[in-house]
Structures are given as structure tokens and as C-alpha cells.
Inverse folding.
């Protein structure tokens, strides 16, 4: 499970159990590691938000909106050995 900090004291929390589950949603019960001073227990909801790459076997009843991936400005393809192109004038901001 993903590492989560306690929203009350900021200490690390650990996953204790998993609650409700569907294909697109899951609840995870967390407990603060600072049991003596804080002792906070809370639930984190994990939800699938969108698709970045379509599945070869999609489930028609469980679909997510498709999003396009945008690379960083310095992200280039492995076979792109040319220097980066100069920005257009309309891309520059004042």
C-alpha cells in the first residue's frame, strides 16, 4: 500500500485492513504509528480516475475517461538525437 501520513500529527500511518472494494474503488483503513500520543485511525479511499493507456480486454461496464499523456518539456523519444527545437514566439510569455 502507498505510504500515508497521519492527517492529525504528520507521523507515518500504516495500512491495517482493506474495506469496501469494487473494480474502480477501494477503502484502506490506516492507523497512526504514534499510538501513544496520537492514536488516530482513518480511512483512505483509492479510486481509479482515468485511463492513460487503453486495455486490450476492456470491461464494457467499467470504463474510465481516456486522457492523453503529455511529456515534460525535456522529455524526448529514445531515438531523438537532434537538439530540441527553438520555441515559437507564441509559446513565450512575458
Amino acid at each position: 500500500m502507498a505510504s500515508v501520513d497521519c492527517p492529525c500529527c504528520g507521523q507515518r500511518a500504516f495500512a491495517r485492513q482493506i474495506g469496501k472494494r469494487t473494480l474502480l474503488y477501494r477503502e484502506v483503513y490506516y492507523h497512526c504509528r504514534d499510538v501513544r500520543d496520537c492514536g488516530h485511525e482513518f480511512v483512505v479511499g483509492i479510486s481509479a480516475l482515468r485511463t492513460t493507456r487503453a486495455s486490450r480486454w476492456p470491461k464494457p461496464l467499467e470504463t474510465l475517461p481516456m486522457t492523453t499523456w503529455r511529456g515534460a518539456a525535456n522529455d524526448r523519444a529514445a531515438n531523438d538525437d537532434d537538439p530540441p527545437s527553438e520555441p515559437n514566439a507564441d509559446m513565450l510569455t512575458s
Notes: The radius of gyration is 21 Å. The CA atoms of residues 75 and 84 lie 10 Å apart. The first strand starts at residue 4 and ends at 5. The chain has a mean pLDDT of 77.
